[in-house]
Amino acid sequence: MIFLAEDKFYSQVYSIKEQINFTEKFSLEARNFKAIVISGMGGSGVSGRIFAEIFQELPVIVVDSYKLPKYVDRSYCFIAVSYSGNTEETLSTVKEAKARGVRVNAITSGGELSKICDNLIKIPAGLQPREAIGYLLMPLLNTFAGIQTEERKKIISILENLEKERSPIWQLAQKIVDSRKIPYILSWEPFTSLSYRFKTQFNENSKLFALNHNLSEQNHNELVPQLMNGGMAEKFIFLVLEGDYSSRCKVRLDIMENKFSSEIIRIKPKGETQLEKLFYLLHYIDILTVEVSLRLSFDPEDVKVLENLKAELSKIK
Ligand SMILES: O=P(O)(O)OC[C@H]1O[C@](O)(CO)[C@@H](O)[C@@H]1O
């Protein structure tokens, strides 16, 4: 087997272990609010999607556009998440929040957001937003869910073991490259949000198109073209993030597997708690998509096209 992995990229991916020890939090109490609104785009916004799926004590609304829903007022807890602090959609919702007298809590490494927010958690700069998922997500978990030191240690040790045993991930990376197929990711609660993270990591790290769906919903629509239109399923390489094993979705998956001519690759998280499994899968996804990128001879960090677009947009007011 040829090892093409480059330490430079892996050191960024592996830095999630330090990020898990980031203990900053807001002094906010969920019980004081009607709901939590998290505004953020791309690699920053995904922290809100992940949090929304884990935190079940209050509704969590994720905004990934310019507009803040009309109903958001002071009874909502508003948190803007932007690694750079300069993303225009996020800043637009911040301005709307301020105009309505809603307090702006922010997680950012700097930029305009750090200047205009009311309450700031500053995170280290110098990473790509998607590499900072720990810094972006931990403040949400620290504030509303509370994570014990023991749990952090356990998660870090699970990730260290995953790094030591990464050769099956590398084999899967090669299989994806050799297949020349489009990754199609399925998952169910509590890790539906991770199928989206997986898709966007394929996009930004590996420069590949990818599709993602919640398995149950997929069984109500996309299953049709996959099985009835001349075997559309053949065009995809199916990856499943296995969530709760007791879910009826597991039964659905078993039935689907018998109907598909294509292989369905199951990724089973290690760990006992939901958080342990969540971080295992996050790390697995990052290692895999970086490895696919390297095997396709891309720079996993390079998203110039997105940055250039942002620069062009910033010139037109
Ligand atoms: O995290 P930020 O700085 O708000 O940026 C949001 C998204 O925009 C990009 O930087 C590119 O436009 C993505 O890579 C990133 O996830």
From TrEMBL:
GO terms for molecular function: carbohydrate derivative binding; glucose-6-phosphate isomerase activity; mannose-6-phosphate isomerase activity. Keywords: Isomerase. GO terms for biological process: carbohydrate derivative metabolic process; carbohydrate metabolic process. InterPro entries: Glu6P/Mann6P_isomerase_C (IPR019490), SIS_dom (IPR001347), SIS_dom_sf (IPR046348). Transmembrane segments: none annotated. Pfam families: bact-PGI_C, SIS. It comes from the Archaea. Residues 22-154 form the SIS domain. Belongs to the PGI/PMI family. This is Bifunctional phosphoglucose/phosphomannose isomerase. It comes from Cuniculiplasma divulgatum.
